[in-house]
Design a protein that fits this description.
The chain is about 30% helix and about 25% strand. It has about 450 residues and is of the alpha+beta class. Strands 6-10-11-18-17-16-13-12 form an eight-stranded mixed β-sheet, sandwiched between helices. A five-stranded mixed beta barrel has the order 1-2-3-5-4. Helix 4 crosses helix 6.
């Protein structure tokens, strides 16, 4: 009988271990996928793609065991060789091949030139063959950076006393209301895919005080734009015992500062690959919704057409204004009109036409919506009634408030949008692993 006692030790090294090796000429063993092959007569350069980047290996005819004709792009191999310093190679090291073993060979040539520095093909082609296109170093780097965003979100909120939760994505009632719902039958009962974990987040504030979640949300919006998806990942948090919605904005600012520092240290290689210059979140300006519209209209001679919402062009102009006037890539737009916010949004006591809520614009695009919530049971009931909404499906949510809740608020951040603006892409599908939109259900 065999027993397992932990992670298996291996003599196969990864790039960080190779970089840590001090003895030049040391014999090492590595595994990876053949990213590219450059043949130069009796010498061939075999570039391996590994989880930490690219590794250059050198095959010299007559000095290595194995036939180079057995190697192809996308082969997976095990290579044993001599580790050498080489400043022209990725990471400043290379391996002089002594012998290699093909672990698996591709059944067909690659459909995309993933070994090239830039994957010069259409977005549709990249999405149709997503698992292949992401083998390109630049394409892969976007999602390493996205990992850093999520990691920063988790790490920062853990440090601030938040508890991570996981809420259902199938429910009887939507948090946001409206017609943009994916409806389905759930064992002969009507159900919806959740647009947001909002109701559950609020309920859990009464349990843990501070909660957060990263997970998918679903919007049945018939938009075919560069900024919309029908399924995206939302970074949500909710916190109790707040003094005002400004506490929520301050917490998000702290997260952004932490996340940007993390990217600058642990993900610098990916930032350099993509040529990303990180923004400064040291001080983020705040402006009221109505004033933001006026500023953009005045400076850029644009007529205000919709007094109750921000149009995409207005978001872009407001972002441009605060970049030009204050050098800030971020701006909080506060006090959104009540009629454009959900029933649980706290109205401004000074003027009930507006709410104690905000959006965060990043380089002219809304990436966050948040604010203070109604925590008083009767006030919630009155707001539902005033909007002509029923309590069907909201009974347990309302019961939470019937038995006492602290002042609280929270937000949701669109992960793919944040990544898109951070890395300088123009289409949110570029920073979505497997996008779901009006026409795409595969892969």
């Amino acid at each position: 009988m065999e027993f397992l006692s932990g992670v298996k030790t291996t003599d196969v090294l990864e790039i960080p271990q190779l970089l840590a090796c001090k003895a030049c000429g040391e014999t090492v063993k590595v595994q990876g996928s053949v990213h590219a092959i450059r043949e130069m007569g009796d010498v061939s350069f075999v570039i391996l793609r590994k989880r930490d980047g690219l590794l250059q290996c050198v095959y010299e005819k007559g000095k290595a065991v194995g036939d180079m004709s057995a190697l192809h792009e996308a082969s997976t191999v095990e290579i044993t060789g001599s580790l050498q310093k080489e400043q022209r190679a990725p990471g400043g090291i290379e391996i002089r091949i002594q012998e290699f073993t093909v672990l698996s060979a591709p059944a067909a040539p690659l459909p995309l030139p993933v070994g090239k520095w830039k994957l010069n093909t259409s977005l549709e082609a990249k999405l149709n063959m997503r698992s292949i296109s992401l083998r390109n170093v630049r394409e892969r780097a976007k999602f390493r950076i996205q990992e850093g965003i999520v990691r920063g979100f988790r790490d920062f909120l853990y440090s601030q006393g938040f508890t991570e939760i996981h809420t259902p994505k199938i429910g009887a009632k939507s948090a946001e209301g409206g017609a943009n719902l994916f409806r389905l039958e759930y064992f002969h009962h009507p159900a919806v895919l959740q647009q947001s974990p909002q109701l559950y987040k609020q309920m859990m504030v009464g349990v843990f005080d501070r909660v957060f979640e990263t997970g998918p949300v679903f919007r049945a919006e018939k938009h075919n734009t560069k900024r919309h998806l029908n399924e995206y990942t939302s970074l949500d948090f909710e916190m109790g015992f707040i003094d005002g919605f400004e506490d929520i904005m301050a917490m998000e600012t702290g997260f952004l500062q932490y996340m940007l520092r993390l990217l600058d240290t642990d993900y610098k290689k990916e930032l350099d690959i993509l040529g990303v210059t990180l923004p400064d979140a040291g001080k983020i300006p705040c402006v009221r919704f109505d004033r933001a519209k006026e500023l953009a209209a005045e400076k850029y001679n644009r007529k205000i057409r919709n007094p109750f919402d921000l149009e995409p062009e207005e978001e872009e102009l407001i972002g441009r204004y605060f970049q030009e006037e204050y050098g800030s890539d971020f701006v909080f737009v506060t006090h959104y009109p009540s009629k454009k916010r959900p029933f649980y949004a706290m109205d401004d006591p000074a003027d009930s036409r507006f709410t104690l809520s905000f959006d965060l614009l990043f380089r002219g695009l809304e990436i966050t919506t948040g604010g203070q919530r109604i925590h008083d049971y009767q006030m919630l009931c009155d707001k539902l009634e005033a909007r002509g909404m029923t309590r069907d499906g909201l009974e347990q949510y309302l019961d939470t408030f019937k038995y006492g809740m602290p002042p609280h608020g929270g937000l949701g951040i669109g992960l793919e949008r944040l990544t898109m603006k951070l890395v300088g892409e123009e289409n949110v599908r570029e920073t979505t692993l497997f996008p779901r939109d009006l026409s795409r259900l595969e892969p």
